[in-house]
User: Fold these one by one.
Assistant:
Number 1:
Amino acid sequence: MSTFIYYQLYIFLATFYGGVVIGFMYDIYRIYRNMLKLNKIIAIIQDVLFWISISIVAISVLLYSSDGKLRGYSLIGFILGALLYNLLLSRIIVKTINKFLNTVKKIIYNVYLKMKEVFRSIYKAIIYPCKKIYSALNPLILRIKRIANIPNQILEEIKKYSKIIFKKK
């Protein structure tokens, strides 16, 4: 075979690999979208970013393999790569990643529950004595507030009666 055919085979295999990468990226994006349910505007922005990233991958593959030339066998390579990935590997990879993420999620949730229990115990250990001290000191605090308010009451009474006394002449 001539070097031209090897070159075309290289381009085809590179674009086939690019199709596999694009299929994998789509699976990751699909898992991400299922995990986070966001509103429509953010979903549209994420879709645009996804298509931009896929375009970057496709253009990079074309630039490195065929100096950016798009041929029919390049398109067939991308399509076949994505199609075969979707038929053969997609389910296995999605299940594996979902199991991994669910395991991580369970671990994080269990750690959260333990931390919540510890903080609740610390909170109770701090708040319970404070409530007891406050309930014991509350009558004393109210008396002190009443006593501290006596000068203000006296001044108010003086102002009130001084107006009456000074108006009488």
Number 2:
Amino acid sequence: MTYKRILLKLSGEALMGERQYGIDPKRLKEYAIEIKKVVDKGVEVAIVIGGGNIFRGVAAASNGMDRVQGDYMGMLATVINSLALQSALEEEGINTRLLTAIKMQQVAEPFIKRRAVRHLEKGRVVIFGAGTGNPYFTTDTAAVLRAIEVDAEVILKGTRVDGIYNVDPEKDKNAIKFENISYKDVMNKGLKVMDMTAFALSQENNLPIIVFDMNTKGNLEKVVSGETIGTKVDK
């Protein structure tokens, strides 16, 4: 395996599957099976999930809700998704731990760096919920922050698109895909890989990002093995 310890970033929308909102149990099971394949090969896996399938603080703020209140609601949505994924992983026989940035001892452990690293060393899949615990920060930023804290070698951003393109491939069939691109080129071309705070943090810490299609069976395993799947962003 090329990577020993990874941070997998999943969007909340990815969990909707064919639905318009909420969580699709079929999609959850598919993801759990894909994650199990790499865990069985000895890869240490940490995961951050968004909450957009349930609630978006930014969208609520644009409709008049207090932004801070909305963001905390969004953090709780990520915990709901994290609990669902934890359950799906354990159905596949994978040991997991859910650590949250907001204390909620009945359902999760509080995030402590050394505890998270120890869980990973013991082969448990660690899910980080509730973002960074602070309003105004996205789950992309939370993913980069946690990856740096637990010394992950790479961020794998699982999406429904098979990489980064010069324009939206879902709107333009002539879109050109990049196999490898530098942080600088992403900035210059204005490509939306992650929000700017997350991207700057990744760049400052030389943490590579690979954007790939999580919905294609076997892709996660291929990425972790070092195959050229998706688009890699590095220096």
